[in-house]
Amino acid sequence: MTKLQLEIETYNRLLPSLLTQVGKFALIKGDTLVETFDSYGDALKRGYTDFKLEPFLVKQIAPAEQVAYFTRDLRTCPV
Predict the structure, then answer these.
(1) According to the model, what pLDDT value does residue 62 have?
(2) Per its UniProt entry, which superkingdom is the organism in (predicted)?
């Protein structure tokens, strides 16, 4: 199992019950939801305080994944 795979599986398993808190941030360690937070910064701070450099997941609660598009085909704009 890769790093954070367990945390991602835990988030996906708990997502139906977390949907009452859309927009908040879930702090997950292993197979446990530690707590939800109003801000990413608060969740991250608690994660580092509790788990130091051990892997943990902070993820914004949303009904669907946000897809980000990236390209490697970067060109300068003609003037």
Answers:
(1) 96
(2) Bacteria
Residue 79 covered by a domain: no
Query: In which element (H, E) is residue 59 found?
Result: strand 57-60
Tens-digit pLDDT profile for residues 4-49: 999 999 999 999 999 999 999 999 999 999 999 999 999 999 999 9
| Range of the structural domain that residue 31 is part of | 5-60
Q: What is the 3-state secondary structure (H, E, C) of 19-55?
A: HHHCCCEEEEECCEEEEEECCHHHHHHHHHHHHCCCC
Number of domains in the chain: 1
Query: How big is the CA angle at 59 (ends 56 and 64), to the nearest 5 degrees?
Result: 140
Q: What are phi and psi of 57, to 5 degrees?
A: -120, 130
Q: Would residue 66 count as lying in a domain?
A: no
